[in-house]
Each structure stands twice: as structure tokens, then as C-alpha cells.
Amino acid sequence: MKRFCYGMLVLLLVNSCKKEKNGDSQNPPSGGSGSIAITAAGAPIANAVQVKIGPAGGTIHSSDGKISFSIPAGALDNEQNISLQAIENKAPMGMKNKAYRFQPHGLVFKKPAKLILHYDENDIAGSLPQLVNLATQNAKGQWTRVGNSTVDETSRTISASIHHFSDYAFYESFTMKDSKTGSDTSVIKVRSGETIKLNVVFIEEVAMNDSLFLPIPMPASGYVREWSLNGHASPHPDLNLGGLTGQQGYTNAERDYVAPLKAPNPNSIAASAKLDLGRKGILFLIRNIQVIDINKLTLNGKNYDKAQPSAMFLNNGTWLNLGLVETINATKSAGVTVTIEGIASADPGIYSFSASEKVNILAHDEFGNHWSSKKRNPLTGQISYSGNVEVYVSGNGSARQVFARITGSLFGSDGTVEGTSINAVLDVSGPVF
């Protein structure tokens, strides 16, 4: 079994796009369908694209390149100014940024038009293209399913026919979400020893007034039969892969993934949930995970596995100072320190920096070599640091946590072109003052 697939493996899944009537499953879910969901309309997230299309038909493409919309010949009596705009996806279990507003609102076609989504691995992380459907929102804020979708896995497209203009959104009927990214990335990156929650949710449309309404998503506890890591059933922990555990009060659809203390080799972990859909077959939802070793320092290709992290705010809380240093003996050490201007102690968040006067990086090894980002390349006159600094600050007081990654290269402290490569990952938990 291939470990790194794009989201989910299905075995013996039959008619996956066909709506199953209530009570039609050999293993019906517990709790029944949820209440009909009502949401606000999505706000625009991109500029609208406009084209004129008349009786001869035509095609319009979204600004993000994800959507193609084709109106066939004979669908319109007169030329129309067609507008297509990406909006927030407010649909239950809606795919991130996969919702669109078509105008003129309410325009009806004499022949069905085709809406095509061009998807990639991140779009369907934790799900499967066959479980993606299209919904439209009415004036009450309710969502109804639009027929059946057609999937072409070769061209990676999902298409559906529509008969009038409105707001349309793509959603997933089953998916595995995680507490760190949601479900909008093909790979979840976790720190060594970190715990994240995985949960399987589903939508079972509610039939009413000849329409299928989307309910509030529910845990798929009635469907989930087993959890596994790289094909090995949980809850047995693996020192190399980590473990999947259920806490008190968790349903079958919920598990905690606890990462190992050291990244495995190869660094490819697949957390999967086995679902029994009755006559539709057996379904495996999969999330791919990578583990990032923390408190790890590499200078000029040499690893320092015992480096200790530190973090503190300076200059009245307006500068953040980070350090990762390994003590070799009483007189020798190796490490890196970073001072960043502009990260206030009261501002948790995610920050990213490149070469800048506001970022000062110093590095040294046990042989007396020193490097500095403030030195300038004598050939170009530019700041001699090339790389990136990523910082994640969360919590306050005793719950403060700082996670940072520093990569790139530094020139020598004397300004020569000789330099060092640097790769440092540090994690500091607890009071950071």
C-alpha cells in the first residue's frame, strides 16, 4: 500500500456519487442527520472576471484558474455580460476557497451549462474527488445539493450541470479533519512529541420539498470501524511512527495522534480511518503526516543534537531574541541566535522574515568560527544572510510557546565570502519574558 497518497483510498466503493436513501445502509450512522445548516453568504476573495456570451455559447474562467464554466450554444437568447467571482466557501464541509458567485443572479439557461473544478492534492486532502458535490445557496442561507457530480481522475476535474446563476460551492460528504490545519493541506506537519486531534465528519443530505438540503456536519462514529498508522491498527503505539489514542468521551470518529520524539526515516506517516458504508463498500480516509524534529541545529552540515533552546523578549517587549546553543565543554559551544525587531510580546501569531535590517542572526561553532547576518557581501554590498526565518508565537504567560525555524546561509563575521549553511528548529514552551 502506498503511504503517501493524496487523501484517501477507496476499496469496493460502488456508485459513490449516488445518493443513498435513509435506512439503505447495512450499518446506518448513529444520531441520524443533523439540522439543516444556515450560513451567511460568502464575501468576495478575488476580483470578478467578466466576459460577454451570447446565443453561440462560450466559456469563462475564474481568476484563480480553478473553475471553467461553459454555456452551450442555444442556452441564451441574447448576449449577456457574464460575471464569475471567487467567494468564501460557507457551505457545510465546503472545500476551502472553492465557492463562486455567478451573475447576473437568477439568469436561467435554456440548456444546462457545465461547471468544472480543476482540483489538486491540497483541495481534496482528507477526502476523495468522488465524495465532492456541488451545492447552491438560497435566499434563506440554506444550501441544497446540485444533482450528481462527474469525476475525471485523469484530468483531475469535477464537473456538474447547472441551470441558473447563483452562488455555488463545492463540499465533501466525508472527510478527515485535523486540529492543526483543518483539512486544507495534503500533508500535516507536526513537531516531534506534538499531539493533534483527528476527526471524521460527514454530511447526509436531508430530503425536503424535492430538494436535498445540507445539514450541519456530524461525527461519522456510526461508520468508522478502525484506525491505523501506516496500515497498523491502533491504539498500539509505535516508537517510530507515534500513536493514535482515544480520550474519554471520544467517539469512534475521533482520535489523538501523538508524534514520536524523533522524526522517523522515511518521514512518511499515514493516519487512516476505515469506514463501512454498507452496500457502497469499504472506505479508507487518509491524512499524511510529516514530523519535524525540534531543538535541532545543523551548521555547515554538522548536526548538534543536544542544543538547548531559549527565547526572551527585549527592548520593552518589542524585540524577540531566540537561541539554540549546544555546550561542547567548559570553553566551547556551537549555536545560533536570532534577534527580531517588531514582534511584540503581546502579539501571538505567525511571522516570516527574509534578509532584513530588522533581523540579526549570529552563529558560531566550537572551532572559533563566527558568522553574522549584519556583515555585507563584499562582492554585492548586500546583507550577507540568504534564507528565511519563520516564527510561531502562541499563548500567554506560563502557556507561552515559541516555535521557530531558521534556514539559509551566513557569511563570515569579517565580511568575506566564506560562509556557513544553517538549519535550526527550536521549540520553547513555558514563560517567555
Largest sheet: 11 strands, antiparallel
So how many helices?
0
Rough outline: globular
Beta-strand share of residues: over 45%
On the 0 to 100 scale, the average pLDDT is 82
How many distinct folded domains?
3
The portion of residues assigned to helices is under 10%
Low-confidence stretches at least 5 residues in length (pLDDT < 50)? 1-32
Query: Which structural class do the helices and strands define?
Result: mainly beta
Based on CA atoms alone, the radius of gyration comes out at: 26 Å
How many beta-strand runs? 35
Q: What is the terminal-to-terminal distance?
A: 48 Å
Description:
- The structure is a single chain.
- The chain is an all-beta fold.
- The protein has three domains: 49-172, Chondroitinase Ac, Chain A, domain 3 (Sandwich); 176-201 and 217-292, Sandwich (Immunoglobulin-like), CATH 2.60.40.10; 296-429.
- 0% of the residues lie in helices and 49% in strands.
- The protein has no helices and 35 strands.
- The strands form six sheets. Strands 25, 26, 27, 28, 29, 30, 31, 32, 33, 34 and 35 form an eleven-stranded antiparallel sheet that branches. Strands 1, 14, 19, 20, 23 and 24 form a six-stranded mixed sheet that branches.
- It is globular and about 85 Å long.
- The two termini are 48 Å apart.
